[in-house]
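Why does residue order matter? Because the sequence determines the fold. Keep that principle in mind as you read this record.
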Amino acid sequence: MRTVLFPQAFVFAIAACSAAATIAAEPTADASSAYRLRIENPGAFRFSAREAYVPAPEPKREPPVPAQLADKPFTQLIQNAARDAALDPALVHALIYVESRYNPAARSAKGAVGLMQVMPETALRYGVVNPARSLEANLRAGTRYLSDLLQLFDSRLDLALAAYNAGENAVQRHGLRIPPYAETRAYVPAVLAKYREWQEPPRPAPVPGRVRIQYLAGTLLDPDSTSAKR
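Structure:
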């Protein structure tokens, strides 16, 4: 007796055809349908009315760069750093202009470096080991330092700028006044002047309309037509 070997794929095909024929031959309770779909867990395929649709959050949009600052160097980096430190970007631009004229390689005789002329020991307060390593690191340390100075001196911008130039201890030592140093006395008004130049112009206040007072239905009083009578 000879043993005949069939390929494995051929055996699977025959088994599948046999199973299909068996299913087709089985009668169903519903005569209108040749097959019957049986679902073991119908609840798994139903939508719950209690599950409200939650839309995906919209991506965060960065505020646009003001027109008067759009042509300045590193404007987007300065914009981001200023916003992160809750500062007006025009103020940061003014300080950078006076400090370094936008020169990221600037270095003072005292050791201040970068766009914002940050001292290394000051940068360490904000976790920046090397403020000259990158523009972002320099801006992060400088803007946060300026923001802290504004808080320290109750939002007195003149004192915060004086402290940025001469140190907060010098301002406190001189009775919360601008220290009598020639450099600091020239520095503060220079930054303030540039800041005023680059600030966004204030929006005009809305013009109030004429007030008409209605006392009773159908009775109007125009204040402009009345005069004080006793």
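The chain has eight helices and two strands.
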